[in-house]
Amino acid sequence: MRGFFVAILLAASFAARGETLTGQVVGVSDGDTITILDEVKAQHKIGVAGIDAPEKTQPFGHGSKQNLSKLVFGKLVLVDYSKRDKYGRIVGKVIVASPDACPEILSNCPKTLDAGLAQITVGLAWHFKKYAAEQRPEDRKMYALAEEEARAKHAGLWRDSAPLPPWEFREGKIDRRR
Hints:
By secondary structure, the chain is of the alpha+beta class.
């Protein structure tokens, strides 16, 4: 019963910020992009807000996609959003049931795990500071702290001495580690 009330409070806080979309994850393109199918079977491409993950051809790109898949694929997610990006994707905070609390794919499990924050915590995404002002202040602080902790622990991509951020990779900047 407590989980039910947490889910209601979470949903209410999302509604106050922007729009909310619920759907089952039917695709994971990379470490920060998913596709969901809503209740009327419409597909929506979602960019996970607040993060930027390595591109597929970058070191840790495959691992980032695999981790996000493990967290969300086939599961029901809640997406809190207020914008679309230049590609037409919805950009939002993706919330899913924690696999520890609810290992089965059940729609009635409370959605309490922030998938973007989870990606940063294990060192498989950067906090996308370019868009940090679009985040709620508490999310901005948690994402920044999670990145600092992942760096300090040399988790995931932080094992490299100078990991190339995906925004630099996309601009064609030379990988300074080589």
